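TA notes, week 10

Several of you asked for a full example with nothing omitted. So below is the full record: structure tokens for the whole chain, then the designed sequence directly under it. When grading your own attempts, check the secondary structure regions first.
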């Protein structure tokens, strides 16, 4: 969205508390949540990987459930690796992903990768924390804070947030913007101000399981605390600029 014509600036005062990584320099859009790109592994696995740099290890040969090359989460992960660690490192991660994908090759969305893990068709799944949390909470899902924590602790898989060696945890998010000339600007502004507020983001996180981006909002129960890991510092604008480079790395790695 950066530089795209037709978007009105969001209210500057409402954007002020947000980290630079989640908003446009021109103030025309902002992410109202973050969905951490994580690894899911079987709970009984010894020597659990610490991040994306481990997925090329021989012990995962034929045992990784990977997404389509066009999956936005994979694109964001690679863009963040390029920005944080450099293109050669990102290229090696893709090579390891191709070398170790489950056989016969299958392509998954975030939830399908978890299905493969639970069906023991794979030992490691690339997914996001929201899909992992939903699967852990069961159907019907646990709803109280105590039940949510117990369900997560008893899940058949462990969710791994990549460590600092990866450059931080990559993320996708819900991006908020307002078109110029919106037919009902007062209603649009009211919705924007609510979703950009701490109470609004607390409610959004409780409903979706995503991390809020407002620093004073309360995350949903059962989420790993944000002070226990580091987000990738790559901004939304930087990720957009790196997209063509990501596409080229995907082509070189021959990911369908």
């Amino acid at each position: 969205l950066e530089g795209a014509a037709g978007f009105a600036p969001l209210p500057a005062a409402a954007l002020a508390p947000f980290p630079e990584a989640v908003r446009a320099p021109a103030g025309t859009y902002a992410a109202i949540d973050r969905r951490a790109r994580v690894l899911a592994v079987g709970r009984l696995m010894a020597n659990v990987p610490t991040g994306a740099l481990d997925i090329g290890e021989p012990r995962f040969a034929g045992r990784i459930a990977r997404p389509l090359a066009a999956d936005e989460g994979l694109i964001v992960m690679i863009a963040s690796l390029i920005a944080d660690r450099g293109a050669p490192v990102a290229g090696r991660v893709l090579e390891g992903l191709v070398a170790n994908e489950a056989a016969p090759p299958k392509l998954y969305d975030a939830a399908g990768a978890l299905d493969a893990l639970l069906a023991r068709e794979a030992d490691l799944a690339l997914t996001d924390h929201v899909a992992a949390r939903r699967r852990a909470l069961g159907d019907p899902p646990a709803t109280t804070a105590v039940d949510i924590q117990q369900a997560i602790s008893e899940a058949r898989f462990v969710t791994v947030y990549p460590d600092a060696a990866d450059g931080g945890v990559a993320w996708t998010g819900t991006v908020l913007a307002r078109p110029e000339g919106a037919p009902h600007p007062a209603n649009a502004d009211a919705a924007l101000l609510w979703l950009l507020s701490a109470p609004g983001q607390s409610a959004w996180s409780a409903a979706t399981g995503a991390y809020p981006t407002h620093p004073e909002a309360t995350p949903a129960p059962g989420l790993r605390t944000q002070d226990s890991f580091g987000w990738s510092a790559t901004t939304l604008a930087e990720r957009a600029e790196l997209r063509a480079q990501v596409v080229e790395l995907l082509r070189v790695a021959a990911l369908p």
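The mean pLDDT is 89. Use that as a sanity check on your answer.
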